[in-house]
Write a structure and sequence with these properties.
mainly alpha, 68% helix, globular, single chain, 281 residues, 9 helices
Length: 281
């Protein structure tokens, strides 16, 4: 796939002062059915994230805003505002893709309803009942660790280069900003509670949500894709293994870091990596 860029001259990554970058990705109206290396398995993995992100990011915003008044540090307060701005922009861009996927005949509306009800109206309220209101913030911090870790691995291994046209830029821009603001929710959590138990419980819940929804939505897409038969399913799955062999072991290693008592997202770095990637968008 071509890696041609538009050189948008976006402001560089700064973890201490994240930037809200308003984007306008063009030419995605004719998005191919299998826009990642003509591979249905990889494409529908990304399609699952398109479903997860808009509602998920609204959840992140609410979880952080619920405790914003307890943040007294001016620097962190500023980062919270930028975090919210970035998440709003991410949601908008992914919602545009969902409209395109609806045009391809994907069952987007039903997927969104099932995801929203099970995750945010049923599953999370149960855990909040047992572990308190800060649990949602802990889950947000945990999910942010997953998204930032996945972003770092993807950029380091140029996974985005197999994406069609401006989809490459959209995925890369989102990945760079996930790295840029990866410590915001974590730092808010540490401000309101330094409980290691709460942080780990939030991460365990986040892990079930991340893997459960990503895999189930991916296969929902695959099973309803009329262009994917038995033979193509296994061919594309086999082809996707080369990425899986890199992504999943590294993501598992990153997940283990979160259990360390002295862990902080800044320890994994990635900021220079994101800066180098941003200038190629």
């Amino acid at each position: 796939m071509s890696t041609q860029t538009k050189n948008r001259n976006l402001k560089s990554i700064d973890a201490n002062s994240p930037t809200v970058r308003k984007m306008n990705f063009e030419g995605l109206e004719n998005l191919p059915d299998h826009y990642i290396a003509n591979n249905s398995f990889m494409t529908h993995t990304v399609n699952a994230y398109h479903i997860l992100f808009p509602e998920g990011e609204r959840f992140f915003i609410k979880s952080v805003k619920a405790f914003a008044d307890q943040v007294k540090d001016p620097g962190l307060s500023s980062r919270v505002k930028s975090f919210i701005g970035q998440e709003v922009q991410h949601g908008k861009e992914h919602e545009k893709i969902l409209e395109i996927l609806k045009g391809q005949g994907r069952p987007i509306t039903l997927m969104e309803k099932v995801y929203k009800w099970t995750a945010f109206d049923f599953f999370l309220p149960i855990f909040e009942f047992f572990f308190g209101k800060k649990l949602k913030l802990a889950v947000t911090a945990g999910l942010e660790h997953y998204t930032a870790s996945m972003a770092e691995i993807s950029i380091r291994n140029n996974f985005h280069d197999d994406a069609y046209g401006e989809m490459r830029s959209l995925l890369l821009w989102h990945a760079c900003e996930e790295i840029e603001h990866k410590s915001v929710a974590y730092d808010v959590l540490q401000t309101v509670s330094k409980s290691h138990f709460l942080r780990i419980m939030g991460f365990i819940v986040a892990s079930f949500m991340f893997w459960g929804y990503a895999l189930s939505l991916q296969h929902w897409f695959l099973l309803t894709d009329k262009k994917v038969g038995f033979r193509k399913y296994f061919q594309d799955m086999k082809s996707a293994r080369k990425i899986g062999r890199i992504l999943y072991p590294q993501l598992f290693s990153a997940a283990l870091l979160y259990f360390k008592k002295d862990f902080h997202p800044d320890q994994t770095g990635g900021y220079e990596l994101a800066n180098a990637a941003l200038i190629t968008i």
